Amino acid sequence: MIIEKIKLTNFRNYKKIDLTFNKGLNLFYGSNGSGKTNLAEAIYFLSLTKSFRTNNELNLINLEENDFALINAYIEKGKNYKKIDVFISKNGKKISLDNKNITRISELSNEVNILYFLPRDVNLFKESPKVRRNFFNIAISKQFKEYLKLLNSYEKILKNRNELLKEENVDLKLLDVYTDQLISYSKNIYKYRKDYFLKLNVFLPDIYKKISMKQSLIHLVYLPFVNDLENYNSIAKEKYKEALENDLKNKRTTIGIHLEDFYILLDKKNITLCGSQGENRMAVLSLKLVPYFLINEKENKPIIILDDVLSELDEINKTNLLNFLKTFEQVFITSTYKIDQKDITNYLIKNNSVLKEETYD
Ligand SMILES: Nc1ncnc2c1ncn2[C@@H]1O[C@H](COP(=O)(O)OP(=O)(O)O)[C@@H](O)[C@H]1O
Ligand SMILES: [Mg+2]
């Protein structure tokens, strides 16, 4: 899939811009604070209908024209075109796909799949497990709608169970019913996760090698709550029994798939404990690119956004990364300098406007 066109009105520092994008590598360059990340943010917004750097969407509205902000975009998926309109105002946001209002994010994230890497992602393995769970939950949901449904059902029961645990006299029979329900959803969620990590591990080493040019052993280690599909229910049940005292004391469910995590082994060492900043960056970037290779149909291949990645890399890694990125359907990358190369379309960002430059040949 590719984004053909985007029009921004009163979005961040842009009052009105109208841009066409090319296939392959699109590079936004300009000085610090010129609005490169803002433009990347607008593109990202199309996928999850939220920003990657603010929870308050009113921040997206241009400070001088503070009534509303608009994003209009045209997406090309094979022979199909889709139009997406996002309207943000003090009264909330409205999103439409081909002029029909949508109410659920999943309706849009199924249409526009974006993988992104931001400077803060380098800390993925130093952050709390919640951040990593969020990463794989979103990644798996994008591939399997069923997974998101399972997760939502699990969350509902977890909430009920936690509320019950907060009561003065906990009804242990009811608690048991909730536990059984949790286990049955957990098993299915575990299956998806296990399968997904297996797939990630197939592609990760190759991607890491392409970017780093190092022959390293890289492996993701998934830490499931129960790691035995055949005896899942009985093992889980036993674990819940053991955790009962703790659950009652803490007034919440202290074990389960809602607490699962993963880490990376790089040359047999845990990257969280031993990885350098550079190794973390390459590893997370590789990991974030894997889903691109899990989708076979060209028209559904995700769009890639990489914000401020180049500045942190040495020359060799930069060249490798750019060459690798040229093989993707469509990539947006921000940088403080332009790169005059065949197959890179440069956009100069200056004075709150964006100038597309002629391609070099
Ligand atoms: N709602 C807004 N209205 C106008 N300007 C904004 C708004 N939000 C952010 N900006 C401006 O955008 C600039 C930062 O843009 P950013 O995309 O982060 O720059 P960079 O090119 O370094 O990535 C800042 O100067 C900031 O004042
Ligand atoms: Mg920036």
Notable characteristics:
Glutathione S-transferase Yfyf (Class Pi), Chain A, domain 2, 15 strands, globular, Rossmann fold, six-stranded mixed β-sheet, binds adenosine-5'-diphosphate, six-stranded antiparallel β-sheet, 361 residues
The H/E string reads EEEHEEEEHEHHHEHEEHHEHEEE
CATH architectural grouping of the largest domain:
3-Layer(aba) Sandwich
Number of helices: 9
Overall radius of gyration: 22 Å
Tell me how many strands there are: 15
Shape: globular
Mean pLDDT: 94
What is the domain tally?
2
CATH-level-4 superfamily name of the largest domain = P-loop containing nucleotide triphosphate hydrolases
User: Reading side by side through the largest sheet, how are the strands ordered?
Assistant: 2-1-4-5-6-7
CATH topology of the largest domain: Rossmann fold
- Helix amount, in percent? 40-55%
Low-confidence stretches: none
Query: Which structural class best describes the helix and strand composition?
Result: alpha/beta
The largest β sheet comes out as: 6 strands, antiparallel
CATH class of the largest domain: Alpha Beta
Q: Give the ligands present.
A: adenosine-5'-diphosphate, magnesium ion
Q: What is the CA-CA span between the terminal residues?
A: 25 Å
Q: What percentage of the residues does DSSP assign to strands (E)?
A: 15-25%
